[in-house]
Design goal:
It is a single chain. This protein is an alpha+beta fold and 465 residues long. The chain folds into 2 domains: 12-120, Roll (Ubiquitin-like (UB roll)); 133-460, Creatine Kinase, Chain A, domain 2 (2-Layer Sandwich). 32% of the residues lie in helices and 17% in strands. The chain has 12 helices and 14 strands. The protein has helices at residues 12-21, 49-55, 125-138, 184-188, 191-203, 230-250, 297-317, 371-388, 413-421, 424-430, 432-450, 455-461, and strands at 27-33, 39-45, 57-60, 86-91, 97-98, 106-114, 142-154, 208-213, 219-224, 254-256, 272-277, 339-341, 348-350, 360-362. Strands 7, 8, 9, 10, 11, 12, 13 and 14 form an 8-stranded mixed sheet that branches. Strands 1, 2, 3, 4, 5 and 6 form a 6-stranded mixed sheet that branches. 48% of the residues are buried.
Length: 465
């Protein structure tokens, strides 16, 4: 690769302008997101930033083959098979931002991984999404979207029963074990924290919007501005999680992005709203005004593709052991590949609203999923439906949980790993390298969980068998 050529498209001028505008920033977090969506990288000093933009930064290839604990997964083929050599990470254009509330002041820049000759490294989740966006662009289609972020704010200490408990209000220490769904007054106790979250989001160029108290004690939701660029939507989500986690820690509480941290209540989803535009920005999912209520063929075929591919894709949407605890009847987590209109009991929802905002809300993913891989898989499912003109079948009306006995969806995590590993569709959605890496990491995580003795084993069997 030619010296000084940046394959990501980032320009040295961006870094120079940032340094001139922020003379007080002393260091930068370099963040490369792995298969689990965990930010890996380094912190560099101010004087090193221009070198990053000119020459990239060498990082070991194994950084993309780590499990949830940060340990090597040899089955990915990214460790000793390749001598654990270095590849080159480059900054993502437009991702250089200040961080709120840091002392000394720091900034942050997202990275993406490339081979030494400048080719995209296939086990980088951003490249998986970029492939699907590019494939749609070749067909004259441009996906737009946004994610919703649900999460819990928990106390740093466990309760008397040893389980996690909702955090006390950061305003005055008040506690509540009630669900408090949509309670505005309940939100007031966390306003100092949320004010800092909004401030951090603003510095990062993220428009975080509506805040609600969700359907469990200590659970909240933030919505994000709809983006014409789906990659930007995924960047927003991954970055907002880091902001929420950092600001919660600064206020003495824990931000939890497990899919199901409290067994008696609903878990946390990461609903993905997606539409398809043409080159002029016209929403191709919208029906003509004269035919309102008669769905456009494109949105129906998209739904058909998403339904047809959902079963083999569930590992992407529910990637961890805890993810599968979220799928319980009438807990606002879909349990069958159903679709419907203005109906929160289905997996694929067409929200009520204006024609120009017509979109599909993809609801299976937990907040613990990787948004780049979720978006890549959803877009691949839509492409599949459009290419095959798949009929989605009848709309689900009423209680979508009546379809909970649907046997097409994997019953558990182990079955989901098996389905995804053998799936040609998932391999195409993620790319061969990302597919191998992701499935190997999930198999290693399953092995770790399977050999761990859980407390419930002792509760059930210690004195009885």
């Amino acid at each position: 690769m030619t010296a000084g050529h940046c394959p990501s498209g980032a320009q040295v001028a961006e870094a120079e302008a940032f340094l001139a505008a922020h003379p007080d920033i002393e260091a930068f977090d370099l963040v490369l997101n792995d298969a689990n969506g965990i930010g890996r990288g380094k912190i560099i000093r101010r004087h090193e930033l221009l070198g990053l933009y000119r020459n990239g930064r060498h990082l070991p290839i194994s950084i993309l083959g780590l499990d949830i604990c940060g340990e090597d997964v040899h089955e990915t083929g990214l460790i000793w098979d390749q001598g654990d050599g270095d590849l080159r990470a480059w900054p993502v254009p437009g991702s250089l931002v200040p961080l709120h509330g840091t002392s000394p002041r720091r900034g942050e820049v997202l990275l993406s991984m490339y081979s030494l000759d400048g080719e995209p490294m296939g086990s980088d989740p951003r490249h998986a999404l970029a492939r699907q966006v590019a494939a749609l662009a070749e067909e004259g289609l441009f996906p737009a979207g946004a994610f919703e972020l649900e999460f819990f704010l928990l106390a740093n200490e466990r309760g008397p029963d040893g389980k996690v408990q909702p955090a006390r209000d950061v305003l005055d220490g008040r506690s509540s074990a009630k669900t408090e769904v949509y309670s505005v007054d309940h939100l007031h106790g966390m306003l100092p924290l949320f004010s800092d979250i909004y401030a951090g989001a603003k510095l990062a160029g993220i428009t975080a919007e509506t805040l609600i108290s969700e359907y469990a004690p200590g659970q909240y939701e933030l919505t994000l501005d709809y983006r014409r660029d789906v990659m930007q939507a995924a960047d927003d989500l991954i970055r907002l999680k880091r902001i929420v986690r950092a600001q919660a820690r600064a206020h003495g509480v824990t931000a939890c992005f497990m899919a199901k941290p409290i067994e008696a209540y609903a878990g946390s989803g990461m609903h993905f709203h997606v539409s398809m535009q043409d080159g002029s920005g016209v929403n191709m999912f919208a029906e003509a005004a004269a035919d309102e209520g008669t769905w456009s063929p494109m949105i129906l075929h998209a739904l058909g593709g998403l339904r047809a591919t959902m079963a083999e894709s569930m590992l992407i949407f529910a990637p961890h052991a805890n993810s599968w605890r979220r799928f319980a009847n009438q807990s606002y987590a879909p349990v069958s590949p159903s679709w419907g209109v203005n109906n929160r009991s289905v997996a694929l929802r067409i929200p009520a609203g204006e024609l120009k905002a017509r979109r599909v809300e993809h609801r299976p993913s937990g907040v613990d999923a990787n948004p780049y891989l979720v978006a890549a898989t959803v877009l691949a499912g839509i492409r599949h439906g459009l290419a095959k003109r798949i009929d989605p079948g009848p709309e689900t009306t009423g209680n979508g949980y009546d379809g909970e006995d649907d046997k097409s969806i994997p019953a558990d995590w182990r079955e989901a790993i098996r389905a995804a590993t053998g799936s040609a569709f998932v391999r195409d959605a993620l790319g061969a390298e990302m597919h191998k890496t992701f499935c190997a990491i999930k198999a290693a995580e399953l092995a770790r969980v399977s050999r761990t003795i859980a407390d419930v084993d002792f509760d059930l069997y210690l004195h009885t068998v």
